[in-house]
Design goal:
D-amino Acid Aminotransferase, Chain A, domain 1, 2 domains, globular
Length: about 290
């Protein structure tokens, strides 16, 4: 449990970290968030996470009441106050308290929350043996209605899909676009490997621009492995040599079964393993220092 939570400029005890029931984050899911990790006393890719947060806020016409530099400082101070070196950081900015009505003009002050706490990691056997996943019946939100590249507090689309994975007894699920293209998973991006080439869906399909996916792209370039962002259908995943997922919580996770079809030889793939190894190295040396 966190010792201190950042709430609107103050570090308070968890029992005092309370927000109004009239906050539009509660009433309408009106707000944005980020899930960030710190490794070895450094916040990983904080600048990229803040960039995405401020972009999401900009798109929904929300002015975050802190500059990016002030927010960076607030994140670092929150981690430091909790004396954490390896942790999960949840940054939430809601529209703030208003009245019963959609109009965001009634919410003059956004609520800023930063929670730093220990992380619940995927069990090691997921990395050793690989994950089984399903394709969810719930389609990803259409980017023409609510673009999934906005990391908004409206996560019901993903939660509906997540419930399908829980019912199926698997840890993750693939979500297709309304056109039937592979988009992403409920909380991870997806990559497939075929004949030594890597494929991932383009952002235009309607997915989140994952930070871990961006780091993966950098690693692939470094390793001289060709990578393309192109639309593909679920059949491409069924017949791939390797499938893996990327996300702040999962890091780089091998998939060995999709909808009951064995992927490759049914064991985590070599390219997946190498990317994860390199990812691990990068997380140990990079990042915004918390302790000077
Ligand atoms: N797609 C979706 C829909 C996500 O929510 C990702 C991809 C991966 O993005 P990053 O930037 O993390 O590589 C996400 C991220 C949580 C949790 O608490 C969820 C995410 C990240 C961290 C924690 O469920 N989702």
């Amino acid at each position: 449990m966190a010792k201190y939570i950042y709430l609107n400029g103050e570090l308070v005890a968890p029992e005092d970290a309370k927000i109004s029931v009239l906050d539009h984050g509660v009433l309408y899911g009106d707000g944005v968030f980020e899930g960030i990790r710190a490794y070895n006393g450094r916040v990983f890719r904080l600048d990229q996470h803040l960039h995405r947060l401020y972009d999401s806020a900009h798109v929904i016409h929300m002015q975050i009441p802190l500059s990016v530099a002030e927010m960076e400082q607030a994140v670092v101070e929150t981690v430091r106050a909790n004396a954490l070196r390896d942790c999960y950081i949840r940054l939430v900015v809601t529209r703030g308290p208003g009245d019963l009505g959609l109009d965001p003009r009634r919410c003059p002050r956004p609520t800023v929350i930063i929670i730093a706490d220990s992380i619940e990691l995927y069990p090691q056997r997921y990395y050793d043996e690989g994950l089984h996943v399903i394709t969810c019946a719930t389609r990803r939100n259409s980017p023409e209605a609510l673009d999934p590249s906005i990391k908004s507090l409206n996560y019901l689309n993903n939660i509906m899909a997540k419930i399908e994975t829980v019912q199926a007894g698997v840890p993750e699920g693939i979500m297709l676009s309304s056109e039937g293209y592979v988009a992403e998973c409920t909380g991870d991006n997806i990559f497939v490997v075929q004949h030594g080439e890597v494929l991932t869906p383009p952002m235009s399909v309607g997915n989140l621009a994952g930070i871990t996916a961006q780091v993966t792209m950098e690693i692939l370039r470094e390793m001289d492995i060709p990578v393309a962002a192109e639309n593909f259908r679920i059949l491409t995943a069924y017949t791939a040599d390797e499938v893996f997922l990327t996300g702040t919580a999962a890091e780089i996770a091998p998939v060995v079964q999709v909808d009951g079809r064995k992927i490759g030889d049914g064991k985590p793939g070599e390219i997946t393993r190498k990317i994860h190894e390199r990812f691990h190295q990068i997380t140990q040396i990079e990042g915004t220092p918390v302790y000077g």
